[in-house]
Amino acid sequence: MPSKTLTTQSPWLQRFMAWVHERFALPNALLFFILYSTTAVISRHIMQLRPLLHAYDLLGAIVTWSFFLTLRILDEHKDYAGDCKYHPERVLQQGLITLANLRWVALLCILMQLGFVLLYDVHGHILVAWSIMALWTVLMTREFFIADWLTRHLTWYAISHMLVMPLIVFWLAQMAVPGIPLHKALVTLMALAFVSGFSFEITRKTKGPEEEQQGVDSYSSLLGTPLATQVIMGLASLMMLLQSILLRELLPQSRPSILVLFIVSWAMVLRQLNRYRKNPSSTERKANEKAVALNMLMGYGVIMVICLTAHGS
Asked: What is the pLDDT of residues 149-190, one digit of tens each?
């Protein structure tokens, strides 16, 4: 239901789903599910375990989604004052959903994550990985106690926040295979998650001229549209390189022709970014986000499917 038709008297679930649609769209869950599934498949491939996918991986994917939802809720708290000033039209800022409501949802998500630990963690490996990731998340929420400095250095802000992505992948790997060591392929996957997240973050904050607001930082205003676009192109190229390296580490005998899939996906991203560079706008910015997200899905998905088919899982 559109938020314009809602009031504070509307059913709570309708108001909450309006917030979800606006700030944590359900279709994005596909990326989180693919991230968990790919990590699980790669982790079991590394440890030579079969099958590469289990029925309980559906629960693992839902738990993964719950953590990203927790991150979104923490961001809503951190950015609340600024969003009230610059985005008063949002569901939360209108009072249709409150921060207290979201805290209860976050608590439920955390209980779900800890419940997975109780069900499947025998020696504490999952709990340790979750705790490290949770500690970094808390530091992110507190802006590492240097909020003013990070506000003035947007690139370092993004780097510090995207460093949670390797920690998330390590946690997911422990969920799939408790006790898995830091194999080089797992480290490469962690690096790919960092670069992918960094790429999407910069893409999301590289805006069309009509979207720019005084007081709201963006990479297009900080770097200028041409340079910001080149940075995203560079990150997309690094993503393709890491995807290729990861595939060779996992399956050294894989056919080189498979790399064509990565190249085609990369070329489509560069084509779209070039369109945005020539004609920056809100429409092209949204197309950038879709292109980068699809490139991420393609990279993770192709590697997962190739591992599965190579072992008949």
From this structure: 988 888 898 899 999 999 999 999 999 999 999 999 999 999
Query: What is the maximal distance between C-alpha atoms in the chain?
Result: 61
CATH number at residue 165: 1.10.357
Cis (ω within 30 of 0) for the bond into 178?
A: no
118 CB-near residues (< 8 Å, 6+ apart): none
Distance separating the N- and C-terminal Cα atoms of the chain:
41
Half-sphere exposure for 41 (CA within 13 Å, toward CB): 26
Helix (H) or strand (E) segment spanning residue 77: helix 57-78
- The beta strands (E) that lie in the chain are given as none
pLDDT at 99: 97
Q: Are residues 119 and 262 both part of a single domain?
A: no
Distance CA 100, CA 292 (A): 33
Q: How far apart are CA 120 and CA 127, in angstroms?
A: 10
pLDDT tens for 115-155 read: 999 999 989 999 999 999 999 999 999 999 998 898 888 88
Pair 104, 134 in one domain: yes
State the pTM of this model.
0.94
| Amino acid found at 288 | N
Task: Give the structural domain span for 312.
Answer: 182-313
CA distance linking residue 11 with residue 134, whole number of Å: 32
Nearest-angstrom CA–CA distance, 166 and 197: 10
Rounded to an integer, what distance in angstroms lies between the CA atom of residue 157 and that of residue 275?
Answer: 27
Closest CA to 273 of 260, 259, 286: 286
Other CB atoms within a 10 A radius of the CB of residue 220 amount to 23
The set of long-range contacts for 26-31, using a CB threshold of 8 Å and a minimum separation of 24, is 28/68, 29/65, 30/297, 31/293, 31/296, 31/297
Q: What whole-number distance in Å separates Cα of residue 200 and Cα of residue 207? A: 13
Total of domains in the chain? 2
